[in-house]
Write a structure and sequence with these properties.
By secondary structure, the protein is an alpha+beta fold. It is about 55% helix and about 10% strand. The strands form 18 sheets. An 8-stranded mixed beta sheet has the order 35-36-47-48-45-46-37-38.
Length: about 1300
């Protein structure tokens, strides 16, 4: 082979080797590619397996969710059906309940009616038996009286026959004398006629003399002759007349002697006839009584028969009663059962509603989760779809693999077949509160029924399905988890306590409620913890840990110290391991969360099941189920008031994504200055003082607190009361007490105005413009000691009265209804409150609108009408009775202070006749040591003068004023009035009676005599008459003609004479009768006080006062017979009505005694005032009534007590004794039924008349005001004060003067009385 071929071969070989190398490289590359593809394939297979597994899991989860959703829908349908069924059952139960209550009510009413009839029959029988015995005794007495009366009757017959003979003789003699007298009278009349003729002739002569001037001389001479002749004839006639007059005088004396004899005889005959008629009447009465006894005997027999029949009826009724009681008991048991069932159903309905809400929340969350998972699945599908497409483009063999995978995925997406197999009972375990519980245990606890248990065992229901149905029993319905601030901020109770949002006590209680229901909840992360874990996390403070561990034992169980077993809360309470209140508080939280926790089973049980299993006793069961039981054991953080746990849960808001119950954070408290305490904004909204939109604007800061305060000021502070007096004459401002001290105001008027200040908020210092409490006003000298107690009582209208039975604070109106304050005073204080802004709520410390006062029971429509019509305040300037609002309208506003001042010296209603008609006379006493001048009262208080001298000098002080009073008919009269004592003198009446002459009257009108001098002239004459009368000790008869102001003619016919009997003053005050009746001057009849109120001649307040005086001095007086009756008996006899009897109970206790609840002893009025059992005003009135009628009364001790004795026994103190003895300072709280002027009870007694037959006092009344005109029965002089003559003031309150008035033809005899004294001032 040549070299060239070799080279070619070599070159070819190199090519082949290069191609081989290249092929080997290509093969190696291909192998590497195959390896990479295999690796990628394996990787994709692994990823596909993972995704396949995930897809399977997602598919199974989706199927489970769809199944759960379907189960939830079916469960919701079942719940809806169950709720509808429960509603139907509740309606049926309510219908059965109403029927049972109606039947029970009817049976109870019939039973009560039967018992009342039985008791009434027994009482009537006892009464008839007692009356029969009394009548038998009276019959025996009457038979003896009849025998004696027959004997006296025979003697009287003999005496009458003798007197009749004498009378017949006297009558014949009288007839003869009367005929003789008639003859003489005829002669006298004839002579008088001749004398008149002569005088007529004389007049004719004088006329002729004037007509005939030319014959003047002749006629004069003739007339002189005739005159001489006439004179002689006249002398002769005068002699005859004198002789006839002498004879007439003799006849008159003889007639008078015969008349005296006839009067004596007629009196004896009248007495005999009267006695005889009385005996006949007694005889007829005895016969009638005997007849009535026979009738009573027959009626008694009937009653005995009726009684036997009633007894038989009662036996049958008692049997019927027993049967009804059994039925009633059965009905009560049925009612309790149905009530419990109803409550259980309501509880279930509420749980179902909560569960439904929770399921709805879960459904929404699941739906969102499913949507999220579907979206993620879609993204995954898209991503792997792209990857598979890439693998398909790279390699064809992967296409088949991808198709295979898709087929497998589609196969796996199909619905798996469920397996119905028998479930092992040991696997049926549920999650309880703290531990697991089996289905059998749930069945034993009556949480599931037998059918549910069988379905669980057969696999027809899963544990999850049943757990969902019994969720409230397994886990509860939730407890209050914390405080909600904002959607992103929640606080535990410990954090809220540390931030002062919740009171420490309230926070601990709410944490105890969490622990007692199973766990402490961390609201920030929605995690349930034990107490130890919560303490480690800082959710519980160290000082609260022990309390919460004890509360946790309510869920986990208390360890019995004797047996070591776990016991429940109720059993621990029974063993005194915890208190009853703690047990009730923890159980209340458990019941509100689902039921009573069984610590052994660790589930919530219904109350009935817990009672059956002995977890709670009957006491705790009643406390938890009784709707009227006060189980408000928790404190509301918002209002700081007690509240029950269920009510507190209702205030919570539910967090949607966690289901936690969160309390809203307490609002910031906005308060305003009230009358005594701060007033919250919520209280103003509740009282409708501030509208809700205004309150919201204030809370949001859109308006300021000052603007709201200005809007609510009329109700927070009110308008100004009458702060003081403006003296126009001296241009100065005075406080009311200072004005009284200077004589510008009377005591009663000052007290009324000061009480109005105290009852409307504060005492007012008008000079310094200060508002003070009564205590501070007294300390600063704004008021005196004599007013302090009364004003403290009036101040309670602002601060509230204390109910003696319950201890609660009640309002002024409620105190009036309970009798803690007198009605007239309450009306006066209520009127002042309304006039200054509204009724005051003592609890809320602000004023109320009328409609809100109605709702809260602080006022009613009836009292509103009374207050609107009441004119209980007196204008000191015009003496008019006005409302407080009318009195305020007459005030002026102080420009500097803005206070309301009452101006003085404005004569609006009374017209004066002189520019300066007011004159005062003061008595000044000089202290011999200091040479300081002082008033009479100051000297008496400093013991410089005794009491008698004090009364004497006080009587000499006066304050005269001339006023003109215009009556309704237009007539007017001028009167001088002593404003200090109320004494009035009618100037025209004094002039007519000759007490003053015309000359003195002209001097007074011309100004030569001052008002004081002129009044002194009139008063001295009246005092002189009184002195002359009081110095005599003999019986003086006085006849006068008295004219009535209302009916002069009737008075002249019926009142013929008045006689006075004077006696020496006694050294000791005797017991006298209170005012027992009213004398109607229009009809001239005696009526009861209640009848006077009905006739509108006595106002209701005065009538109540007069009846209170009777009740507190022994009883209500029957004017017909003078007997004193109890309130019950007086009401039965119709003397008072039921409403008045209720008002007089406090006055009756003043006589019977107030029972001390501590030692059961009877207290007098003074003791009751000291112990605060009796309001000061009422007690003072009762003391005045008792003192004026003879002395104070000590319960269960007969007779009256002297002032020295009551002071020695401590019944009253010295200051009260001095006030009682100073009768001139008694409040004028009565309205005179005749004059319609304000008077005191002392004045009423002085003005009263005394009925001689019974000794009862009567007060005159007329429908029209007499305006000071004297009564036809007031026998004192017109200048007398209160029925007694001027100046007859008593120092020792002893002595009496009686005057009797004989009212013919009715033969009633009355007497007017007054006190007299041995001293008479100038």
């Amino acid at each position: 082979m040549s070299e060239q071929e070799l080279n070619v071969i070599r070159v070819n070989l190199d090519k082949v080797s290069r191609e081989k190398n290249r092929a080997e490289q290509d093969a190696a590359q291909f192998q590497n590619s195959l390896k990479e593809i295999k690796f990628i394939k394996e990787k994709l297979e692994d990823e596909l397996a993972v995704h396949k597994k995930a897809a399977l899991e997602e598919s199974s989860k989706r199927k489970r969710l769809e199944e759960d959703l379907e189960q939830m829908r079916s469960a919701c349908k079942e719940h809806t059906n169950t709720i509808n069924q429960l509603r139907l059952k509740i309606e049926e139960v309510s219908i059965v309940k109403q029927r049972s209550e109606q039947n029970l009510k009817g049976q109870q009413e019939s039973l009560d009616k039967t018992l009342k009839e039985k008791q009434r029959t027994i009482d009537e029988l006892n009464l008839l038996t007692a009356e029969l015995k009394a009548l038998q005794r009276k019959l025996l007495l009457e038979q003896e009286n009849v025998k004696e009366a027959n004997q006296r009757n025979e003697q009287l017959y003999r005496t009458i026959e003798e007197k009749s003979k004498i009378v017949n003789d006297n009558k014949s003699e009288i007839d003869r004398l009367q005929s003789l007298t008639q003859n003489l009278t005829k002669k006298r009349l004839r002579l008088e006629e001749e004398l008149r003729n002569l005088r007529q002739e004389l007049d004719d002569m004088k006329m002729n003399k004037d007509n005939c001037d030319s014959d003047k001389t002749a006629l004069i001479s003739e007339l002189q002759l005739q005159l001489q002749t006439s004179s002689k004839r006249t002398l002769e006639l005068q002699g005859l007349v004198n002789e006839l007059s002498k004879e007439r005088e003799k006849f008159r004396l003889e007639i008078e002697r015969f008349q005296k004899q006839i009067m004596e005889s007629s009196n004896m005959i009248h007495e005999s006839q009267t006695h005889y008629s009385e005996l006949m009447q007694e005889k007829e009465m005895l016969l009638v009584k005997i007849k009535m006894l026979d009738q009573d005997k027959t009626r008694l027999q009937k009653y005995e028969d009726e009684l036997s029949r009633v007894k038989a009826t009662l036996d049958s009724e008692s049997r019927l009663k027993l049967r009804l009681q059994d039925e009633h008991k059965q009905l009560q048991n049925d009612f309790s059962y149905w009530k419990n069932q109803c409550e259980m159903k309501e509880e279930l309905v509420r749980k179902y509603n909560l569960e439904k809400d929770k399921n709805e929340r879960d459904r929404y969350s699941m739906k969102s989760e499913i949507d999220r998972l579907l979206a993620e699945l879609k993204v995954i599908d898209e991503r792997y779809k792209h990857r598979l497409e890439d693998a398909e483009r790279e390699k064809s063999d992967l296409q088949s693999l991808r198709l295979k995978m898709q087929k497998e995925i589609s196969t796996l997406s199909q619905k798996p077949v469920t397996c119905n197999c028998q479930t092992d009972s040991s696997k049926l375990v549920f999650d309880g509160i703290r531990r697991k519980i089996t289905a059998n245990q749930l069945y034993d606890c009556k949480i599931i029924n037998k059918a549910t248990l069988d379905m669980l065992l057969k696999g027809q229901k899963t544990v999850e399905e049943v757990a969902l149905d019994i969720q409230p029993s397994l886990k509860g319905t939730g407890v209050i988890a914390g405080i909600f601030l904002t959607p992103k901020e929640k606080l535990s109770f410990t954090d809220a306590k540390n931030k002062n949002l919740v009171q420490p006590e309230s926070a601990v209680m709410l944490l105890e409620a969490q622990a007692a229901t199973g766990h402490i909840i961390d609201p920030k992360v929605n995690e349930k913890l034990t107490v130890e874990a919560a303490y480690a996390r800082g959710l519980v403070d160290r000082e609260d840990k022990d309390k919460l561990l004890t509360a946790e034992s309510a869920a986990t169980g208390f360890h019995d110290p004797h047996t070591g077993k776990l016991i429940s809360v109720g059993q621990a309470k029974k063993k005194e391991m915890i208190s009853r209140n703690t047990a009730i508080r923890l159980l209340e939280a458990q019941v509100a969360a689902g039921g009573v926790i069984d610590p052994v089973s660790s589930v919530f049980l219904p109350k009935d099941v817990a009672l059956d299993r002995g977890l709670i006793d009957g006491d705790l069961y009643r406390a938890l189920t009784d709707p009227h039981a006060d189980t408000k054991s928790y404190i509301d953080p918002a209002t700081k008031k007690n509240i029950s746990y269920p009510d507190l849960k209702e205030k919570c808001r539910v967090e949607l994504h966690t289901g936690l119950l969160l309390l809203p954070a307490p609002k910031k408290c906005i308060s305003f200055n009230g009358l005594r305490e701060p007033v919250t904004l919520d209280e103003l909204v509740d009282s409708e003082i501030v509208k809700q939109n205004v309150a919201s604007a204030l809370e949001q800061g859109r308006i300021s607190q000052g603007e709201v305060n200005e809007q609510a000021r009329p109700y927070l502070q009110g308008t100004s009361s009458i702060a003081g007096i403006y003296d126009e004459l001296n241009d100065r401002t005075l406080g009311i007490y200072n004005a009284m001290q200077e004589g510008l105001l009377k005591y009663g008027t000052s007290l009324e105005l000061l009480e109005a200040q105290a009852a409307t908020g504060f005492m007012v210092d008008p000079v310094n413009n200060k508002l003070l409490t009564v205590e501070r006003a007294y300390n600063s000298g704004l008021i005196g000691r004599e007013f302090k107690d009364k004003l403290l009582s009036a101040e309670k209208a602002v601060t509230g009265y204390k109910d003696p039975l319950t201890g609660d604070i009640i309002s002024l109106f409620q105190a009036m209804k309970k009798g803690l304050i007198e009605k007239d005073q309450g009306i006066r204080l209520l009127e002042a409150q309304i006039a200054t802004g509204g009724i005051i709520d003592p609890k809320a410390s602000h004023r109320l609108k009328v409609n809100i006062a109605y709702k809260r029971g602080y006022f009613d429509e009836e009292m509103n009408k009374i207050v609107s019509d009441a004119k209980v305040f007196c204008d000191p300037d015009t003496q008019e009775n006005l409302t407080y609002l009318q009195l305020k309208e007459r005030c002026i506003m102080d420009k500097k202070t803005g206070l309301c001042l009452l101006p003085m010296n404005k004569k609006k209603q009374i017209t004066t006749t002189q520019k300066n008609t007011l004159r005062k006379r003061r008595v000044v006493i000089v202290d011999p040591d200091t040479q300081k001048e002082m008033t009479v009262r100051e000297a008496y208080h400093k013991n410089l003068i005794d009491y008698d001298t004090f009364l004497e000098l006080s009587g000499q002080e006066c304050e005269w004023e001339e006023i003109t009073i215009t009556a309704s008919d237009g007539t007017s009269r001028v009167v001088l009035v002593d404003r200090k004592t109320g004494i009035q003198y009618d100037i025209q009446d004094s002039l007519d009676k000759g007490i003053i002459d015309k000359k003195s009257m002209e001097k007074y009108r011309s100004g030569s005599l001052t008002l004081t001098q002129f009044a002194g002239m009139i008063s001295s004459k009246y005092e002189g008459e009184t002195t002359a009368s009081s110095s005599s000790t003999e019986h003086v008869s006085h006849s006068s003609s008295v004219t009535s102001a209302t009916s002069p003619s009737v008075s002249r016919e019926r009142i013929s004479s008045a006689s006075f009997t004077l006696s020496r003053p006694s050294e000791q005050l005797e017991e006298i009768s209170p005012i027992a009746a009213i004398f109607d001057t229009e009809t001239l009849e005696k009526i009861t006080i209640s009848e006077g109120i009905r006739r509108a001649i006595v106002d209701s307040i005065t009538g109540q006062r007069l009846l209170e005086a009777q009740a507190c001095t022994g009883g209500i007086i029957n004017p017909a017979n003078g007997k004193k009756l109890s309130l019950q008996e007086a009401e039965r006899q119709g003397i008072i009505d039921q409403d008045m009897a209720q008002r007089l109970k406090l006055a009756e206790k003043a006589y019977l005694g107030f029972e001390d609840v501590k030692n059961k002893k009877k207290m007098s009025v003074g003791d009751a005032i000291k112990e605060k059992w009796l309001p000061y005003e009422s007690g003072q009135h009762f003391l005045e009534f008792q003192y004026l009628t003879g002395g104070l009364i000590e319960p269960d001790v007969p007779g009256r007590r002297s002032m020295q004795e009551v002071i020695r026994k401590g019944m009253v103190d010295g200051r009260t004794a001095l006030k009682l003895q100073d009768t001139s300072s008694y409040p004028r709280n009565l309205t005179c039924p005749k004059t319609k002027l304000k008077i005191s009870y002392k004045d009423a007694i002085d003005r009263s008349m005394v009925e001689e037959t019974t000794g009862l006092r009567m007060l005159e009344a007329s429908p029209v005001s007499s305006k000071g005109i004297s009564s036809p029965y007031n026998v004192s002089a017109p200048g007398s004060r209160s029925g007694s003559r001027a100046g007859s003031r008593t120092g020792s309150r002893s002595g009496s003067r009686r005057g009797s008035v004989d009212l013919s033809p009715s033969s009633f005899s009355y007497s007017a009385s007054s006190y007299s004294s041995s001293y008479t001032g100038n």
